[in-house]
Amino acid sequence: MGKQIITMGSKANILRFSLNVSDIDRNYYQEHKFTIAHQPPETGIHIIARILAFTLNAHERLAYTKGTDTKHEPVIWQKDLTGAIELWIEIGETDEKRTRKACSRSKHVIIYTYKEESSAIWWEHESSKFNLLKNLSVISLPVKALEDLASMIDRTMKWQFTIQDRHVWISNNDRTVEFDPVIWKEHELEED
To answer: Which strands form 3-6's sheet, in the order they lie side by side?
Structure first.
């Protein structure tokens, strides 16, 4: 798989990720390499949330976009061969208007939250509206796992991801972190 470079501006630390993904649930086995520019305002936990969102949906056409600096693109997306958006991935607590627009433009939208307390309050407030969107999934990433993985960030990282029965194991040379994503809402599958 080719390298992707994700930039976020100048004065950034450069992080190199090599992710070996074994997703047994989806029968997907591939290595992905990224170079990420980490600007000081972005936390390690946010970087990990972006990496996990990519890994949990890894696909040869899945790609990082220009990021949240644009209101017309998600953080991550997957397009089909015609350019139509198949998957739209947001990181964090998005508003209803942006989410509805994403759902109208994409076959499937996933919101990954990563701030335990504020995300729970956000979901309690938004869930009645978001539950009406059939092609939306909302997943909470456990804070403890995010913190453990953020403590493993280094300039060059080679991580192994294994996903089976929705359980996730991430290991590097000497540490392993495992968790179950918390599914708050799952999209309704369409018959193809």
So the answer is: 3-6, 28-38, 13-23, 156-164, 167-171, 176-179
- Residues 78 and 150: their CA atoms lie apart, in Å, by 26
User: Does residue 99 carry a pLDDT above 50?
Assistant: yes
Predicted model pTM: 0.88
Structural contact between residues 182 and 142, judged by C-beta atoms closer than 8 angstroms? yes
State CA 33 to chain mean position distance: 15
- Domain ranges, residue 148: 3-185
Q: State residue 76 phi and psi, 5-degree precision.
A: -135, 145
- Angstrom CA distances, 81 to 32, 78, 188, stand at 20, 10, 23
The answer to whether residue 70 is domain-embedded is yes
